[in-house]
Amino acid sequence: MKRITKIYVLIPFLSFCLVACNSSEEKKEEQEKIEGYQIESVNIQHVKLNDDFWLPIIEKVQNKTIEYALEKCEQEGRLDNFLVAGGKMEGEVKGAMPFDDTDVYKIIEGASYSLISTPNPQLEKILDSLISIVKVGQEKDGYLTTWRTINPAHPPATWVNVDQGKRWESLEASHELYNAGHLYEAAAAHFEATGKKNFLEIALKNADLMVKTFGPEEGKIHTVPGHQIIETGLIRLYRITDKKEYLNLAKYFLDGRGHHEGRKDFGPYTQDHIPVVQQDEVVGHAVRAIYMYAGMTDIAAIENDTAYAKAISKLWENMVNKKMYITGGIGAKHEGEAFGENYELPNLTAYSETCAAIGDVYWNHRLHNMTGDVKYFDVIERTLYNGLISGLSLDGTQFFYPNALESDGVYKFNRGACTRQDWFDCSCCPTNVIRFIPSLPGLIYSKTADTVFVNLYASNHAKINLAHTNLEIAQETAYPWDGNVKLTVTPETESNFTLKLRIPGWARNEVLPGTLYSYKKKVHATPQIKVNGEQVEASIKNGYITLTRSWKKGETINLNIPMEVREVLANEKVKEDRNKVALEYGPMVYAVEEIDNKENFDAISISENESFQVKKEDNLLGGVNVLENEKLKAIPYYAWSNRGIGKMKVWLPLQSLGESK
Fold it and tell me: How far apart, in Å, are the Cα atoms of 476 and each of 439, 483, 619?
């Protein structure tokens, strides 16, 4: 990151004092706010990965993608916009999108999570410099959207309709509140990582302006955001400050949808067609929707709001039963970046935006913390290993915005390209990957007072505080390439507590919860478990093996989850996937790429009793398990399009009866 440091850290007028760190006691006190969830995630600062699958991906983002994105932001004027807005640089708005500010915020957020897991003084100084630049662009009353400050009559995108150039006049497209939401999310992460208030104070000043500006009271603006995320951002600030006005405003924005007060009616596109508590089908722009559902889940948990809880349950059921790709991706249509009709899941023209996959993980994580239901982590795991990390190339500098499930090598599905791109005018997906990936260790464990949920399997060492003891857990595994997991449990003192080990849906003969997909054949091999070398009953209840006992230091658990190649069928109502199968092994969905099947790609089909060999190829695509037989070679879906342009399929035709092999 030398280039960014040279250009911005040394700018003389930015060398003002930064707010000092809080003491660790103050930081702890401010963060111990009521979450409203019955289950608590184990913070990433207490989970140290040493995993052969996930650690290289996280380090790639930390060491390469963050620097790469900062350079792109600098080259395209994302940082200059703050300086121009603050009068420290002359010029016009740079960039093509009204939400370009958020790229800087998301990079800061991801880098902050990176600091939690891997302290880095140089990176922390760079963040302080970036935050100083952001502060320059903030107006005195807290307003912060640089393009409007620079030239309110000329937005960077032609689809932002302005008349008088006033604030808030085009909320359906201006993204002023979307910008604020990402600001709050990033500031909360930075405060959590460093204890510093320099970024948090910028966010709080902006949030206070929002409280003064919007709401049901007379004299305030009665409207809602066009693009949701300010709701979850406000709730994060509420948790830090305990300022109820932030929570109330988040709920006001949600409750206001479907009433069309004083705003252009964008209808289903912005989930503004009916009140949120009446919605039961996921519609419109998928990213906007999924962020809204996450905010609704926060409200349902914090306020024990049964109407919100019922609505999000219906929306989730509709999504996983009728509108989710086998990769965990959501959003079928390029037009409007939107969900399609029920069972509308095209492959070649799939949108399945990377941002939507990330948002879906955020939503399902909240749902699990609220309920403890295993089905939400089944969705999370499928999304993580397939439709989410597919958005980032193996070298960390190329990206998918949409994630197609088929390519003919001609159709330019990826914002004008039929392979990965190194950046986009709308670069929300690259920077969203940056903000999400470093936070991933926080998904592995969750807890109550006397129970630890082991939700994901990855080699790590974790420290977990329970009501009656402090606990260390070490995981050793080669997951997702095989299903053997060893856990070593070390409580400070012998103590009675419960461990709940999640058995993935694919090992319970469920592709996804619901009826959208099914395995062609059920497997009968069941997980096996040993405690201290002795076989114990592996009774699976509600998706977990539950072990309750008095645990001593150094006790071991060996879990074996059998893996075999599976063939997946889609619901007959999914027209594009009729008479086709998809291949899986463990949590991985597989794809057939032309580069591995040059002689027969277009002729590949799957017969009734197909058999496959699973082979680890350490020198292919960073080291992957491939599936092979005499007909084909398949690779994990997430790794496709790292070797140039070519054809690809996830869904393979079933061989017709009587057809020769």
Answer: 20, 11, 23
Rounded Cα distance between 568 and 582, Å, is: 5
d(CA 426, CA 402) in angstroms, rounded, equals 12
Tell me the pLDDT tens digit for each residue of 366-387. 999 999 999 999 999 999 999 9
- CB atoms < 10 A from the CB of 313, how many? 15
Distance CA 194, CA 191 (A): 5
Instruction: Measure the CA–CA gap between 353 and 332, rounded to whole angstroms.
Output: 9
With CA atoms as reference, report the closest residue to 527 among 584, 568, 482, 565. Answer: 482
Contacts (Cβ under 8 Å, ≥6 apart) of 576:
345, 346, 347, 651
Enter the DSSP assignment of 385.
Answer: I
Angle at 206 between CA 205 and CA 209, to 5 degrees: 90
CA 155 and chain centroid, separation: 29
User: Is 244 in contact with 232 (CB distance < 8 Å)?
Assistant: no
Give pLDDT tens digits for 566-589.
999 999 999 999 999 999 999 999
Which SS3 state, helix, strand or coil, does residue 324 take? strand
Kind of pairing between the strands at 451-454 and 495-502: parallel
Pairing outcome for strands 540-541 and 495-502: unpaired
Q: Show the DSSP H helices in 282-373 as ranges.
A: 286-302, 306-322, 354-371
Cβ neighbours around 465 below 10 Å, total: 14
Distance CA 559, CA 28 (A): 35
Check residue 390 and report its DSSP letter: G
Unique residue bearing structure tokens 């994580």? 365
Q: State the distance between the two ends of the chain, measured CA to CA, in whole angstroms.
A: 55
**Is residue 209 within 8 Å of 143, Cβ to Cβ?**
yes
- Reported confidence tier of residue 538, pLDDT bands at 50, 70, 90: confident
